[in-house]
Design a protein that fits this description.
extended
Length: about 130
């Protein structure tokens, strides 16, 4: 192992899988060995059972699908507005001078700061959720 020497694709896969095997092994040892209370950390078998129950009996797949839809929808809306605006700002200095103060201000605000305003403006339905992602 030398600094900055590339890793072969096969070795990369083996190392990546090894991390997860080691992670689950340490997790199992900590929970099954009684080092961590089940109140604070469930064991891997319990997690698999609970995950399977969520997917098969409680409609969790629909929830996952709705979340993916919201993220993709917000991304598509943002891209549809941001790409033309970014090209226009890069190509035309008056457009950049007009939008730059707002863009620079809004860039560093956390998305969670917009949630109360978006609830007031868009309600609590799908439009508000898409607006948060946007």
């Amino acid at each position: 192992m030398k600094p900055l020497v590339p890793v072969s694709p096969g070795t990369r896969v083996v190392l990546g899988v090894s991390f997860f095997v080691l992670f689950v092994a340490v997790w199992a040892a900590a929970t099954f060995g009684g080092f961590v209370s089940k109140t604070f950390l469930a064991d891997p078998v319990t997690m698999l059972r609970s995950g399977w129950m969520l997917l098969t009996e409680m409609g969790f797949a629909e929830d996952i699908g709705m979340t993916v839809w919201r993220v993709l929808g917000g991304f598509v809306i943002a891209a549809a507005i941001a790409l033309p605006l970014g090209v226009a700002m890069g190509a035309y200095k008056p457009v950049e001078a007009f939008f730059e103060p707002f863009v620079s201000f809004a860039r560093y605000l956390p998305a969670s700061a917009f949630i109360p305003l978006l609830i007031l403006w868009a309600g609590i339905g799908e439009a508000q959720k898409l607006a948060v992602i946007f």
